[in-house]
Amino acid sequence: MELITLEADSERAVIVPGAGCQCLGYRAGTLEVIAGPAHPDAWREHPHRGGIPILFPWPGRVSRACFTFKGREYRLPVNEPARGHAIHGFACERAFRVTRREPSFVTAILDSSDYSDLNSIWPWPFVLEIDYEVGNGLRLKARITNTGRSVMPFGFGAHPYFHAPLNPAGLRDAMLIQLDANARWPLDARLIPTGDAEPLAGKYDLRAPLPLGADTYDDAFRMAPIAERTATKDPSAPRARLIDPSLNIALEIRAGPAFGDFVVYAPADSPVVALEPYTCAPDAFNLAARGIAAGMRELAPGDTFEEGFEIRLNAP
Predict the structure, then answer these.
(1) What is the pTM of this model?
(2) Which of 211, 264, 275, 305 is most buried, with most CB under 10 Å away?
(3) Domains plus CATH for the chain?
């Protein structure tokens, strides 16, 4: 399987188009930022448990692997059997095709017409194009084009896993998380939103940096709209931050306005924190069918959606 190395100045990223076009590693100077899988082929068994998996055509879970759109029910493959859900789409399980390559930049596409079996999984033809670029941060941009003849529902996201701590000599408990969120999606025992987003409280109020401590997270947040930021707040400010006080450094995610939701994932059994930009909430298709605005998007035939985010290191 081909590994593509992107380099600029003291930064290096490794992209694997054949493994869902995910980034398996990103290093800035001597600091390894992304927690990738143990080896490139590990994605075959668990395609979204390390690196930066691409989540499309839905991020998060679709409850019971089915949803209704425009009066018709659609069933998806169950790939989270423990809960009976479809999770994180299928783009991360497919090989992408490289269309442009430079020392610090690569573009690869997933064209649904290249996979005849996708017709039975997702009846809306599409082309998903991903750009990666390194240099003063790692940037990812997605372009999604509806190549079919009917309106396509979709959501897009990414699942970057970060080392926690960033400093191998540091402590997970000392890490701080900050999120530009204004509400949290209430989740049931199966991790499906039960209704409208609710006000933040306790460990879920991450508007100011909060120590991770012994807490765990697998939670979805509604982000504060960029357009509603006050005049005193930089509209280009990071949407999420992971701070390692032992290094006096902050890892920041700066995401475009279409990323209206983030998931924070910090398990107890692994030294990682994932700060995941989503264009919609988990189970957004079913929430939309219930009349709850959760960010599900509709793409008309021939139209293209484009959005991106970047990861960079900065002072806390």
Answers:
(1) 0.95
(2) 275
(3) 4-314 (2.70.98.10)
